[in-house]
């Protein structure tokens, strides 16, 4: 089943999205903050259909010994308890292709679009999001990829544990 | 793609699972605690392949104004940051069929089995879990269903907001 939600021009964030979108810039800044904290450098920012930032956050696995605070989950959590209507037409900006959990969160809240910095480091639920009617855009942003490369080079165990694939840290 | 992970008899929790499993009892107790707190009465408990409880929790949407602390997410979070190996062969007991987010968390951590109290109230990712190789068991537990019926009767908005379908509260 593949059904696309049409992207309507009355949505005020840029179409097509770019690395200059305020939502993407906020997500990238979150990733950099995570990197500086020694954490998995992935950031996210949720923007509503009118371009308003609803929340932002970054991966807190290392910082809080958290099993669930990936960037997108932190972002949804920081946005707080919102009426379901707040997510309609919304865009989740994230610096990396979302894992299965974060993909599921975007599906559950029915965001309209997921804009990712890159998916060279990791390919998560890109195809499943599309199957569930969510528009997916890959910005192929080199800075996001660079942050991840640096982190994985220095902390391979932390990264592969984060995505539930520890055996890959040995490769 | 449907591939089944075989359930091996050397796993010490009961096979087939029942409502008397310690993991299910803990999940149900969590749901009751949530009900008594005025929250969405869904509980979960994660049990490892040797029958040890790794963590448990309940839905905290109402109590903490949380957008992400569904029962299974609370449970994973309360279990803490674990090595990926801890989830191998594990069972996630939950009193209700898991939503897309919680389904994704189970997929991401590669638990072996999801045992749900019921799916009459709500059908979440049952089929997707199976497609991703996770065994799914429905205990068809009347007490779990009763807790949800009572909650939805008194707080329909809280429930349908929790699953991102507010329009159904009006039906």
TrEMBL record, chains A, B:
E.C. code: 3.5.4.1
Chief place of localization: cytoplasm
Listed GO MF terms: cytosine deaminase activity; diaminohydroxyphosphoribosylaminopyrimidine deaminase activity; metal ion binding
Domain called CMP/dCMP-type deaminase: residue spans: 18-136
Biased composition (Polar residues): 1-21
GO cellular component: cytoplasm; nucleus
Keywords: Cytoplasm, Hydrolase, Metal-binding, Nucleus, Zinc
UniProt-recorded name of the protein: Cytosine deaminase
Organism: Hortaea werneckii EXF-2000
């Amino acid at each position: 089943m593949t059904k696309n939600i049409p992207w309507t021009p009355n949505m005020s964030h840029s179409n097509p999205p770019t690395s200059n979108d305020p939502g993407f810039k906020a997500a990238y800044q979150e990733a950099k903050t995570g990197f500086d904290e020694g954490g998995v450098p992935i950031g996210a920012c949720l923007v509503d259909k009118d371009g308003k930032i609803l929340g932002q956050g970054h991966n807190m696995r290392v910082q809080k010994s958290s099993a669930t605070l990936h960037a997108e989950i932190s972002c949804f959590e920081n946005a707080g308890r919102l009426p379901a209507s707040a997510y309609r037409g919304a865009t989740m900006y994230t610096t990396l292709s979302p894992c299965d959990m974060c993909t599921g969160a975007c599906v559950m809240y029915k965001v309209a679009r997921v804009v990712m910095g890159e998916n060279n480091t990791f390919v998560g639920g890109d195809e499943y999001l599309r199957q569930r009617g969510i528009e997916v855009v890959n910005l192929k942003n080199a800075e996001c990829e660079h942050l991840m490369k640096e982190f994985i080079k220095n902390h391979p165990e932390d990264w592969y544990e984060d995505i539930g694939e520890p055996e890959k840290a040995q490769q």
